[in-house]
Each structure stands twice: as C-alpha cells, then as structure tokens.
Design goal:
Two copies of one chain form a homodimer. Helix content of chain A is 44%, strand content 14%. By secondary structure, the first copy, chain A, is an alpha/beta fold. The first copy, chain A, folds into three domains: 53 residues, lambda repressor-like DNA-binding domains (434 Repressor (Amino-terminal Domain), Orthogonal Bundle), CATH 1.10.260.40; 117 residues, Rossmann fold (3-Layer(aba) Sandwich); 130 residues, Rossmann fold. In chain A, the strands form two sheets. In chain A, strands 2-1-3-4-5-11 form a six-stranded parallel sheet, covered by helices on one side. The first copy, chain A, has a six-stranded mixed sheet with strand order 7-6-8-9-10-12, with helices on both faces. In chain A, helix 1 crosses helix 3, helix 9 packs parallel to helix 10 and helix 11 crosses helix 12. The interface between A and B is large, with 50 and 50 residues. The structure holds a DNA duplex.
Chain lengths: 341, 341
DNA sequence: TTGAAAGCGCTAACAA
DNA sequence: TTGTTAGCGCTTTCAA
C-alpha cells in the first residue's frame, strides 16, 4: 500500500472517516480508547494526510510565497538575499508553513497572477527594496495577503518590517565624528529607494547635530553595487577632494569606494576612513576589513514571515496602522577607519 | 466575486463544467466558437484554476522540493547553495513547476516524512554532497522520486548530476605542472566525500602521468572550510615544507591556505602557487585573486531539476543506469600562481 | 462520543 | 462537439 487514506485507516480501525479525521486533528471529542487504537493504525500504516485534499476543503494551503520584483537571476548573487530567505524559511518551519519560491520566478504578470490566484499560496513575502506601485496594485488586486520587507510609507495599510536604517546612518556618522573627522562625504543608494534615503537621513541628522558640514557636493548617489561605489568615489575625488571619511549606503558600495581610493593613491584607513552598511560576509574579508553597520538580515526575514503568518491566522486582529517594530542595527568596528588629525 | 470557480464560468458561458475544463486545459475537443466564448468569460471574471483541486484529482502537485542534509542555518551561508537554488528555480519556472523550500528545514525524520508523504511534492532535489545512507533509505521508503546533486556511485539506481570533478582536479595539476612546478601538495576535502575524492583523483592521475611525486605527506585532509584550509596549510608547512604549489579542494580551503602561507611569511604567488576549486564570487576578490576551477553551479542546479522533472513526467523512460552527463568545468586563471624555477 | 452525508473545485470516463 | 456523472481525500455540519 503506497498511500493509505483516511478511509483505509477508518476501515482497519473499525471507525468512521470522521473519527480518524478528528484524531488526526487533535479534536478532543474522541474517546481515549478509540483515539489510541486509531493512532496505532495510523502509525502502522504510515498514514499522512493528503495536503491537496486538506487545502481544498480548508481553503488554505499553509504555504507562503516569496516574491521579488527583480529578476530571479540576480537575486541569489546579492549577499542580502540568501540570509533573508533563511530567516523566512526558519520562521516558516517554526509555524508549520511551506515556503514556495516559484512566484518570484514567473515574471510575467499573467504568470504571477496565475500562481497568486490559484490558492496555492496563503500569502506572500515581498522581498524587494524597490517595490513598484504597479506591482503592489497587482498584489492587492489578487486579494492575497502580503508583507513588505523594507520600509514603506506610501500606502499605510500595507504591513512591513524593516531594519532601523535611520539609526544606522546616525551611528555611522557619530562614529566617524567621534574619531575626529569633520569632512565626511556620503555615497548613498539610489534616490527613491526608501532604504537608501533613510540611511542617508540618519547620517545627515547626526552630522547636522554635530555642526559638521553636509553639502550637495559631499553627497553623491550610488546604486548599491561595487561598480557604482567605485564610480561614485571617483566623482567625489575629482570634484571635491580632501574628505577624511566616507559613509557608504551599503558594503558593496564601500568596497567599490575603497578600490577607487586605492586607485587614486589613497590608503584606507590612513588617508580615508570608510564605513559601510549591511555587514555582508565579504565585509570582513576585504583588505582592510570593513567597519560597517550590521543589519540583522536573517532576523528581518523571520520577522517578515512571522508577521505575514500572524496576519493570516488572526485576520483583522492587528491594527494595520500600528508602527512596525524597527529591527535594531549595530556598528561593527573593523579596520577601515582611523582617528583624524 | 473573489474567486470564481469552473462552475461560475460554466454558468455564465452557458456550457458545462467539463467544457470549461477542456478549454482551460487546451483540450482540442471544443468548438472554436465555444472556446472563444469561454475564454472571454474566463478573462472577464479573472478565473484561475484552483491548485489544490487540481492536485487532488490529478494526484500530482507540479511542485518539487529541495532537501538538504545539513542544517538549514548553514546552507545559505555557503557560497555554493544560492546559485544552486537559482538554477533549480530557473528550471522549475521553465517547466511550470513550483519550488518548495520547506522540507530542507524540517530536520526531524517525522517532519520530513510528513511533507514527503503528503503528496505536496512530486519529487525532490537532494542538494547535499554528503548524503547519509539513512537519509537515502528514508527517501526511497517514501516512494518519492528524487535526484542527487553530486556524484553518487553506491546505489546505482539513483539518478544524479555532477560536475566533472575528476577533470577539474586534472586541469589544476596540469596547469601547475605546465608552470614548471614539481613539488605540488594538495589539501583535499573530507575523505568519504565523493566530490572531494574525485577532485583529488583527477589531481593524482595528472601528477602521476607527468611523473611528479605524490605522497601521503603531500596530501592532507581539509574540510572545505576556510579554517580547515588554514589548519591544513599549517600542517603542510610544518611537516614537510618546500612545496612550490598547492591544489585545494575548494576555494574556501584555498583562501584559508593562502592566509596560513602569508602568516608563515610566504608570498602568494611568488613563494607558493595556489589553485582552488568552485570559483565562488569571493575568489576574484581576495588578494591575490585566486586561480581556480570553475564549477557551473547554476547549471548544475538546473540540470538536477530538469532531470527530476524528466523522471516525473516520463516515468521509466530513462534507463536508470545511463551514465549521467558530467557538467564541464573550466580553469579560471587569475593571479595566485606563478611559473616555477 | 460517534457516524452519515454533503461538498470543497476539479478532471476524466462514458454517453449522447 | 458537448454534457452527465463519479469521484480525488479530506473536513464539517447535523443526527444519533
């Protein structure tokens, strides 16, 4: 017998299907003796409830999807994505949910809608910093619950989780300031990217609070890639040299910036202090090891999945406007900064 | 109307459920006019077939799982895993399958069996180098089709895909030999790990073919981690110094070995040439950039998923003993090797 | 505490 | 070419 069904168990145990179902679902309304006998048969026969049948009758699948706006091809090469997936997977396991990766692949709107509307998923974690509004609209149209990873202030009813980017930017600035640096530049991520803007905001706030100069010139736009960081640093160096330190919107940017600094004959940290953001594994391995703001990415993924599952299991219970908890970040001091003067 | 069903569409279009089903499944036995009308209604109503109902009646879910023997926590920190997942996901998308990540999380045998036996998955890709025999036995017991990523010769009936590790080991040795080195050591992965043994085998074959010495002393066992590579290199240096080059079982090992060499006052590549295996992203970023054997990891994932889906869709069609195609590897020459003498 | 029966949304064998 | 019908394996009233 490859796959016994409820019926099989019921017949062998001499009870009805309903009773077996109750036993399987821990319904208290079953006699102790009957329960034991049924359990015994279930064990003997190696019975496991059929997921599809359950999903059909219950109207939910106990699985959630992971969606990303970017092409799948690039996702797993980001240092960011894998630990995020891990956090999501951890939380799913803990709550007894399956994690389905497919919908992030089907990039055509039709493909996406097909998956989303098929009832295969109870909800989805949208793991992308730059969520297009069209994407969100489509998601809402699908009547599929979802949560966002990353800050989102435009549509208030959407639940989201995020690291405390503002605090991180502030920490970076305060650290550099504490080292005695005054002329501190910043290479941000793309304007319009909430995450990047928050980090920059924290940085600027701390600089302003200390009376340190921040100008249009001292802040250049990167794109969160190594190449972007390199290019941005080159621009910084050519247009307005003389900075003692630079705060970078993420680690890749910082690594690119260090490469450009080296190329320009500067030594990090002797001539230029550099602070990154994220603490990707690479950060500790570059030369010099990068001082950076650590983002709890795995925790972020877990928080997102947990929030989603909470929404799924207790619909309407969470006040949608409740401010989501910001996950704490911390500074990891390594060797890319040195005291000024 | 949140979710129209077949019934809804049938009623509106004035046909039977069967006809709608035929249209949805592209069954040719539908009149052109009827088909068009039904399609129209489907579009208007935003109908999408319910996945659970389909899975129930068809007895298959069109989704596959990804299983790993190791703890989930460590998986996504390996440089190897993310691109593998990407390849699998790519192939899944192409064939219209969903990829479910959950089963690699539930580490208890009961948890695993629950998922595997629930019919939620049509098959699973087992992505782990060191598959325990108990694990395989359990998998077979579940009557769930699966394929292995990585070489597997012990149980012949199990389909697997693998990079050409032997050729890779040979390439590394031949390259080092061509540079004029004779005293070449090797730091392998764990004995008993098929992948590691194949790489070493290729290396030894090429060395032997060239009449270069290989001894028990010149081959030490690592564990495919950076720390393991560091420790192994230290051992090599203390017990039998004077090697001109070292072939490492993977890149992490090579990076650790380079660190140990530096620590011992050796310069890479001037005093010691180092070759790695895998070509993880890190390989190009370390100093000096690592010469290594590139493994097509994403292609490997895609091949595994494709093979699995082939097995699922054409049961019995593939001769189980057919030698699986070995995916080609290539040497990536960077700056960690220098000509000898 | 237990069972009978209806039905979740779909496919497929059989009829017409 | 189309419709009727019988389930797929499960949960869940409603009765007993």
């Amino acid at each position: 017998m490859a796959h016994p069904t409820l019926e099989t168990i019921a017949r062998i145990a001499g009870v009805s299907r309903a009773t077996v179902s109750r036993v399987v679902n821990n319904d208290p309304r079953v006699g102790a003796e009957t329960r034991e006998r049924v359990r015994q048969v279930i064990r003997e026969q190696g019975y496991h409830p059929n997921a599809a049948a359950r999903a059909l009758v219950r109207g939910q699948s106990r699985s959630i999807g992971l969606a990303a706006h970017e092409a799948l091809g690039t996702l797993f090469s980001h240092a960011y994505f894998p630990p995020l997936v891990q956090g999501i997977a951890d939380a799913c396991e803990q709550r007894g949910y399956s994690l389905v990766l497919s919908p992030l692949a089907s990039q055509t709107p039709e493909g996406l809608m097909g998956v989303w509307q098929s009832g295969q998923l109870d909800g989805v974690v949208v793991a992308t910093a730059a969520v297009g509004d069209a994407f969100l609209a489509r998601l809402q149209e699908a009547h599929l619950p979802f949560v966002l990873v990353g800050p989102h202030h435009a549509r208030p009813a959407i639940p989201w989780v995020s690291p405390d980017n503002v605090a991180g930017g502030r920490m970076a600035a305060e650290y550099l300031l504490s080292l005695g640096h005054r002329r501190v530049a910043a290479i941000s991520g793309a304007r319009g990217l909430g995450t990047a803007m928050e980090r920059l905001e924290g940085f600027c706030m701390a600089m302003a609070a200390a009376g340190a100069p921040v100008s249009d010139e001292s802040i250049v736009e990167g794109d969160h890639t190594e190449a972007g960081g390199y290019a941005a640093m080159e621009r910084l160096l050519s247009h307005a040299p003389g900075y003692e330190a630079v705060f970078c919107g993420n680690d890749l940017t910082a690594i690119g910036a260090m490469r450009a600094a080296k190329k320009a004959g500067l030594t990090v940290p002797d001539d230029l202090s550099v602070v990154g953001f994220d603490d990707v594994p690479l950060a500790r391995m570059v030369d010099p090891p990068l001082t950076t703001i650590r983002q709890p990415i795995t925790a972020l993924g877990a928080a997102a999945a947990t929030l989603l599952i909470d929404v799924l299991e207790r619909p309407g219970e969470l006040p949608p406007n409740a401010a989501p908890p910001l996950l704490p970040v911390e500074i990891v001091v390594r060797e890319s900064c040195r005291a000024g003067r």
